[in-house]
Fold:
Amino acid sequence: IDITHEHSRVSATLPTGESVEVLLHGASVISWKDAAGQEKLWLSETAALDSSAPVRGGIPVVFPVFGTAPDHEATAKLPQHGFARNSRWEFLGRSTSEGSTSSVKLDFGLSSENLTDEIKALWPYKFGLIYSVSLDPETLSTTLVVTNDGDVAFDFQTLLHTYLRVSDISSVEVSGLEDSEYIDKLDNLATVKQSSAVTFSSETDRIYTPAKGPRHPVVVSDAGKPLFRIVRDNLDQVVVWNPWVDKAASTKDFSPKDGWKNMVCVEPGTVKGWQKLEAGDAFEAAQTISLA
Ligand code: BG6
Structure:
């Protein structure tokens, strides 16, 4: 297994050809390629890869707040989607057993000590995050462990903001969410029940609470062909997002401007209410994305 760690990024390639690339900024996965070299994630051509902003595309890590939460005092002052995606993480190394030739696991860490003074002042809790990116020939999984290293409990939300690459959003279907309720962020947070597979014909921004549980896969298909199967561990929601024409046009770092046709965000998270983590406790959650 070939691993490089330079220019603030870590990449790994399996002997079978699959690869993954992670920026230390945000511990953002910016590339996942299959054995044929086909990219599986969408990354904006103008994504900031120089630490000046969160990465537009790939898999940004949302922590400790999803969106903004003006009514939740402890997180009210934080930037949209929190600080983890815009902080520099440490590479902790590769943690698979030596000699494994078919898979690799890369670990990244962020703790209160790594934060800028500005962010520390906005969110003063002592915490640790360990984010593991594991690549197998057919599967990418990302696991987040949150620890409370302080003396007081804190509340958080987290979400793995995965931008999946598709060839044509108008022929994409997301199944596995049938009979699930969702909150429509584009309709005053109305609660709606999904009756069939999710299809796309306009801007879409929904928080699903899948009825069938975390091990029931959410499947993304394009023109009837399954592309991705996503299962979750300890993450009760799935956000489904596509910005469509206008939102893509008004998003500065979104390019090409018709790039919304080639992406869909399917984002496992825990974002309804708050996870309360007592002093000394740990929380662990994961997504596993398999090529279908
Ligand atoms: C999604 C949210 O998860 O992220 C959307 O549901 C939001 O409301 C989108 O627009 C992108 O957020 P950002 O901060 O990366 O532009």
About this structure: The helical segments are 117-122, 244-250. The mean pLDDT is 96. The longest strand covers residues 263-277. The radius of gyration is 18 Å.
